[in-house]
Amino acid sequence: MTASRPVGADLTVVHLIVAERFGVEVPTFQGEGPSGGHPALFIRLSRCNLSCTKCDTKYTWDWSQFDPRKESTKQAVADLVIWATSSPVELVVITGGEPLLQQAALVPLVETLLAAGKRVEFETNGTIAPVPELLVDGVRFNVSPKITTFGMDEAKSVVPTALETFVASRRAAFKFVASSAGDLDRIAELVDSHQLAPVWVMPEGTTADAITATTRVLADAVAARHWHLTTRLHVLAFADARGR
Predict the structure, then answer these.
(1) Residues contacting 117, CB < 8 A, separation 6+
(2) Angle at CA 130, nearest 5°, toward 168 and 242?
(3) Domains of the chain, start order
(4) CB-based contacts of 132, cutoff 8 Å, min separation 6
(5) pLDDT tens string 25-60
(6) Which of 26, 47, 75, 101 makes the best surface tag, with the fewest CB within 10 Å?
(7) pTM of the predicted model, to two decimals?
(8) How far apart are CA 61 and CA 47, in angstroms?
(9) Rounded distance, CA 135 to CA 165, Å?
(10) Looking at residues 68-81, what average pLDDT do you find?
(11) How far apart are CA 123 and CA 86, in angstroms?
(12) How far is CA 216 from CA 149, 180, 187, in A?
């Protein structure tokens, strides 16, 4: 997929398919991973190349349950830039769905946000390698490969060539969702096979009780492997409400 564009391209005619954007009108935080707890703005893109049964954002891709005409809109990059730069918050999180499906249009968005003094984090499933134009200072990737217990065939959700690109970039952290100590064994196999680092483990769950219970199941084993442990702050703080 090419991401090149003419110099000085009109950002009013470059569009992204967006599920939602939030954090300006009602402030929020990055809820997971290395920047957990940081004030953040979110641009959630629609569409995904996976269909994980335990996905908590199925409104970005599962059209058997959701209507894409109601759940997504085409928005100009220029409008997204105006929206994001109206806030003093530095961190812009671009998530999904799978945002890198639309990276040709993401390049001018990211370039413009960086020029405005923002920093950008992508939340990605790690199946699509980022183009070189996104591998720049000010951009980080939270790469979350999905293991079998998350409800996805690893033949589709683990793409070695893409993971190699993320590792080589030195701009990625690898964040795995886990619900049991057994999941950590599979995560360790992937970490060793693909030389993934740093590693973050996040408890599965969409309620505070589930997050707390799973954290206690995982904590000792994650610590023993010298990995990082992250919670899901948006679940604990905002009861997993959309737009928070």
Answers:
(1) 90
(2) 120
(3) 15-238 (3.20.20.70)
(4) none
(5) 999 999 999 999 999 999 999 999 999 999 999 999
(6) 26
(7) 0.94
(8) 5
(9) 10
(10) 97
(11) 22
(12) 19, 10, 18
